[in-house]
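Repro:
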Amino acid sequence: MAEFPQLSDNQTFLAFISYSTIVISKMMLMSIITAFFRITRKVYANPEDALAAGKGENAKKFLRTDERVERVRRAHLNDLENIIPFFCIGLLYSLSNPDFSTAVWHFRLFVAARIFHSIAYLTPLPQPNRGLSWMIGYGVTFSMAYRLLKNKLYL
């Protein structure tokens, strides 16, 4: 493992930080898109939020679900389920001194798969587009975990 002062010299770690920043920013954007759809469609999950759109009994009609809001929310939840493991495993993987080009391809594939997954979810594109993009991203994370366990950890 690299010592902390050497992290700025670790090109794999710097690449990981760059690609992680992209997918984490995309994940944060999904929460903004969710809020946008909730506000523009006047669809709220909490009574106190619905009060901003209507008063008293009128506010209750805004406590409902909407397919577009739910689609964005599910895409965001899927990001949370996939980007957090990628970040954790990718961090360990990037610090384990992997081959640089192999590591960068892992990072690039994951970022591309997650961006395409969101596009496929929000558009919506017909299956298997979303499923394949999820599988590619998940496979990348699993591949990094496997390489880490196989080559660098002592069990």
